[in-house]
Every structure is written in C-alpha cells, then in structure tokens.
Amino acid sequence: MINLLDFDHDALTALFAERGEKPFRARQTLRWIHRRLVDRVEAMSDLAKSTRETLARDAEIHAPAVVRDSVATDGTRKWLLDVGGANAIETVYIPEDDRGTLCVSSQAGCALDCAFCSTGKQGFNRNLSVAEIIGQLWHANRALLADGVTTPWVEQGRHPITNVVMMGMGEPLANFDNVVAAMRIMLDDDAYGLSRRRVTLSTSGLVPAIDRLSEACPVALAVSLHAPDDALRDALVPINRKYPLSSLLAACVRYIERAPRDFVTFEYVMLDRVNDAPEQAHRLVALVRDVPCKFNLIPFNPFPNTEFRTSSRNRIVAFQHVLQEAGLVATVRRTRGEDIDAACGQLAGQVQDKTRRRAHRIHAVAAS
Ligand code: SF4
Description:
The protein is an alpha/beta fold. It is built from 12 helices and 14 strands.
C-alpha cells in the first residue's frame, strides 16, 4: 500500500501524472489530508469517483500508532508513537497563550551521541520516513481537535498547532531529504500553511547540510552550541570534532543571508559546573561576536543514569546576565511537562548507562 502521508505536492503530482490524472488532483488531495485531516481516501468527496476508487485500492493515510499519550499538569502533552521494529519516537505539544508548538522527531534514536542527551544514549536505529515525520503533525492536530482544544485561532478555523520545532529525537539534517519533504508540506498553503518563521530546525551542527538547507528549504535555524570552546564542545557534542566552532559559526552567518529570520538561535544546555561559569559566558560573547544571534538557555532536564546536574537558578541567572550585559538577547527556557518526562528521549529511552566513563572525562575537560 502507498501511504499518502509520504507525498509532498511534487510527489503527489508525479503520482497522479503516472496514473493519467490531472495535476490539480494533487492540490485537492493535499487539502483533504493535511487541511481537513481526513484518514480515508473515500472521504475525499470532490475527487472524481473513479479517481477515488482507484486510489482507495492501493493508497492509505497512515500515521504511526500511539503507544502512550500523557498530559502534564501544565497542559504539555506527549505522545509516544510506534514506528515498528521495537522503535518508538516522541512528539510533544507545548501550549502557550499565543501559539501551539509541536516538537517533532526526525529519527528513531540518534547517531551523534551528545553527552547530555537521553536520545543519544539509545544509539541510532533508523531515519523516519516523510509519513512518520509529517504524521506527527497530522496526528497531533487531529487528536487535539478531537479532544475539543480551544484556542482563539482554532475558533477562527485554524489548526491547533501554529509552530513546529524540529527538535525532537534525532538530528534532522542527518535525515535531510525526508525532513525537507516533510517541512515543505508544513509550509504548503494547501496543507498546513505555516510560515517559514514558524518552522524551526534545530541542528547539532552538520555544516554542509546547513548550507544545503539554505538552498532547499530555508526555515528558522537553531543550533545546539552548549560550549564556548572546541575542547569542551568536542566532549559534549562529538560532531564538533568534524565541524569545529569556526566552521559552524561561518555556516550560520551564510545561512542568515537566506533565512526567514535575521538571526540564529543558539541553544545552550546549562550543565552544573561544566559549561555554566561566568567566565565561560564571557568567552561565549567573544565567540559569537560576528553572528547575529539569540541565546536560549536550557536548564538541563536530568534522566536516569546521567552524571550531569542542572545548573542552579543563581548560576543560570548569572550566566544570562553576562550575555545580556554584552547586548545579546538571552532567555531561559521554561521547563515544561516535568511530570511526564517531556524532555527529548526520556520516554523512549529505557536504556543502559553507557556514558559514565565519558561524563567523568567531560568534567575533567571543563575543570581544566
Ligand atoms: S542532542 Fe540531538 S543531535 Fe545530539 S544526540 Fe541528542 S538527538 Fe542527537
């Protein structure tokens, strides 16, 4: 069976062309699936009966099945989704007064093995298909509407999800083609119609792929920085050994020329006594002086068997203060969904502790 969630506009046009159908059938079909969120070909009532019948024979609309659905006291909702082969992925909905954000996964597991990351500890299983990526958005909108979510924009007939962050499990740029196809569906006016500013891709720093993204689908860019120098970043974010800070920051500057926003967001997870000293904040200021940017300081969300601790409130505020004094915008991310383990990878990652020895090494680098 063909899964129609796998098809962006161009792929659907090609599918219909192969079958001798008119190109506008692609737009009609996209609207049924992604605007009206139907789950059956038979429901597409403005498609010619013969088209529907042919399509229904070998095509379906199929998102990953829900294994667990948890809602936190603050309204954050997390779905654990089955993607087969004993793999599960996570999708998190974060409601705010003026938006509904969905954090979307791009891979089952991740090969990049960042030291502080629960997903990284699971190792890499496989890339998600387009259907499994866009299916997260399709499913979340449907589930929220079915549960009667009320927001001003839903009352105006829009979907509950207004923003997407490609920040869930996996490195999105390591699954480039499928992530770009899924993001094109997010941006398509006949599908979700999100603006490029409302779709953010977060990368740990695959430099050549950042350049490719600026050509293929420039959306807002977030970069996981986490350290003010190569020695510490090599230990925390191992891909840094291949693409060190100088090449990463140069790629950010190039990206901004085509990006929908005139800055890059740097994410910086606050690890107690590892990367959170005021002196490290000063080095960070010097490091990014030529990059238009904002900082998002993320209190570390501990998971079983990690050796890292969350920075104290005082250390986070002191760090933030140094950045702000230097004229940088630096916000501290509000911790959401703590009672349902909403940080990336925490539900799917029932894994062994493989990081103990390495964490000791990182503390040694930080202290040197
Ligand atoms: S932080 Fe992102 S890139 Fe690093 S291991 Fe975790 S999922 Fe992969």
